[in-house]
Amino acid sequence: MSIIYFSLSGRTKMLSQYLAEYLKAEGYSVEINPLITRNIGAFVRNCIDAFTRRKVNLEYIPETNDAEILFLGSPVWAFDITPAMYVFLEKANLKDKKVFLYNTYGSGKGKDRAMALFCRKVESSGGKIIGKTDIKGRRVKDDFATFKETVQKCLNQS
């Protein structure tokens, strides 16, 4: 299994780390890969980049060939996923991959639209979505049990 995520504030990173710890405790082999870019600005600049789907340069594209299941995580920026995640989705091999999607969000405005766009992009790249969820960024620690249940249901069905 591979967890691939982008995080700026640290909340999506925290959720991804909790997910990795949980999966390892369940006996799964897990790789965790942050998407790293130097193209980060202030909040408003990041929102404009997300809104315009600006291409950013990733330091590397995590390998997906050996992963049976991919967990992809992104914060919601301007009603969408991050530019870093879009670039990853354009360059990665998702053909016939089982994919679980998760978003972290602040206000909650735009989270449904962001998830719908995330799903469309993964499916158009050949991935098969086996599950999806979102979690309020400030509640990652408090709401992880619910997140974990959603993941477990998907793993039981896969």
Q: Averaging pLDDT over every residue, what do you get?
A: 91
CATH superfamily: Flavodoxin domain
What's the tally of helices?
Answer: 5
SSE class: alpha/beta
Order of helices and strands: EHEHEHEHEH
Tell me the fraction of residues in β-strands, as a range.
15-25%
Report the CATH C-level class. Answer: Alpha Beta
Instruction: Indicate the percent of residues in helices.
Output: 40-55%
Total number of β-strand segments? 5
Oligomer: single chain
Shape: globular
The CATH architecture would be: 3-Layer(aba) Sandwich
- Whole-Å distance between the termini? 13 Å
* Total separate domains: 1
Radius of gyration: 14 Å
Molecular structure report:
With 158 residues, the protein is α/β, with parallel strands linked by helices. It has one domain: 3-Layer(aba) Sandwich (Rossmann fold), CATH 3.40.50.360. Helix content is 41%, strand content 20%. The protein has five helices and five strands. It has a five-stranded parallel β-sheet, sandwiched between helices. The radius of gyration is 14 Å and the shape is globular. The protein starts with a strand and ends with a helix. The model has no long low-confidence stretch (mean pLDDT 91).
